[in-house]
Amino acid sequence: MADELEFKIDWATKSRLRGPGERSLGDMLRKLRDRLAPAAQGISITYVDDRGMRKLNREHRGINQTTDVLSFPVHPESGEFQHLGDLVISLPMAGKMSEKLGISRRREVETLVIHGFLHLCGHDHETDKGEMLALQAQLEREILGVDPIPMNLKRGRKPGSKVKVLKDGSRVVVTGRAANALVRKQAIQAPVKASKAAKPAKVSAKSSTPTAGKRGPGRPRKIQTPVEAVRLVPKRTVRRKRTRARSGVIS
Questions:
Q1: Cys-Cys link to 137, which of 145, 148, 151, 176 (CB 3.0-4.6 A)?
Q2: Could you say which DSSP state residue 21 is in?
Q3: Looking at the 3D structure of the chain, how many domains does it have?
Q4: Predicted TM-score of the model (pTM)
């Protein structure tokens, strides 16, 4: 039975801030297990600062910026300890969002734990049609007995910030002048890309296939007769060079 099955919660912290632990979140986590993953036997939760979260986000998702929560699901074999996975939460990000929303940091962490728990169970709000966030709001009402905290894909981003793709494929969030410069660059490139996509290929009158390397409009090129072409070619004297035997080593 789910209620009789032991559910081990491992707590760790690598943050200078203090986050809620077993006394605050233990009961909520067990209710989430009973509701979403009754066969799970354990979960781990680690609190980090923005520096550590940014490193994890860059290594595992290719995004060179911090975030609020990351989920690392585990899929143990049958007969092994059924560890559900690991949740990593940035306490500084949770603190910033709690101040923005006018709530306690503990309340924000509760939402992040529910959000990450759903990811561990296979839900993904980036690919579904809103089912995960709807279920998250329902769980906050039923388990916590409070109104859900709003959450979307751009949660925690500063107003006016933009995502810039670097040469190595990683993405960073830029703000201020860098964001404005990125908007101007995209505005300039957009009509150029559109015109290249809409420009038809040149087709010669003799053939229906596109032509390449043809001379554009302008001053006509003078056509030379074969005799004139021969006269214009300067004579070249060919000198024989002495060849020496080479070794098989290439430097």
A1: 148
A2: -
A3: 2
A4: 0.62
